[in-house]
Amino acid sequence: MPTQAELDRKFLDAAYEEAQQGLREGGIPIGSVLVRNGEIIGRGHNRRVQKGDPILHGEMDAIQNAGRQRTYKDVTCYTTLSPCMMCTGTIIQFGVARVVVAESKNFKGFQDVMTLAGVDVVDYHEPRCEHMMADFIEKHPELWNEDIGE
């Protein structure tokens, strides 16, 4: 039986693949998957550029793609970058129990807010995601600043 850390790595890999897909599409490389009982129920990536939708961040796309759920209290959100305030609010609003973050070096996000709201937050500080975002931010600062509202 896999450990929690092994499961986290597996689903962070899926989120990373979503981020890579976003990058291939010409968008911002942030990916996310929602998991219940070891199964992905929703996956997505930041599609703000591709869809011209200002709120279609990776976590929002994954939640939207999961469709209506009776509850999120037994769901873990895996994301390649620490969630922004909008995604944090959505996570809290729907009662997502756990958030696993690949990296928060390039964007600290609002992990403290989620923790205060009772969300279990784990941050793995993954170098591959740190490098992917740093490279993107260096090459596309205007797009990144638009994404985070600056």
UniProtKB/TrEMBL annotation:
It is found in: Cytoplasm. GO terms for biological process: nucleobase-containing small molecule metabolic process; pyrimidine-containing compound metabolic process. Pathway: Pyrimidine metabolism. Pfam families: dCMP_cyt_deam_1 (PF00383). Coiled coil: none annotated. Keywords: Cytoplasm, Hydrolase, Metal-binding, Zinc. Residues 6-113 form the CMP/dCMP-type deaminase domain. It comes from the Bacteria. InterPro entries: APOBEC/CMP_deaminase_Zn-bd, CMP_dCMP_dom, Cytidine_deaminase-like. CDD domains: nucleoside_deaminase (cd01285). GO terms for molecular function: diaminohydroxyphosphoribosylaminopyrimidine deaminase activity; zinc ion binding. Its cofactor is Zn(2+). PROSITE patterns: CYT_DCMP_DEAMINASES_1, CYT_DCMP_DEAMINASES_2. GO terms for cellular component: cytoplasm. PANTHER family: CYTOSINE DEAMINASE, CYTOSINE DEAMINASE FAMILY MEMBER. Homodimer. This is Nucleoside deaminase. The lineage of its organism: Bacteria, Pseudomonadati, Pseudomonadota, Alphaproteobacteria, Hyphomicrobiales.
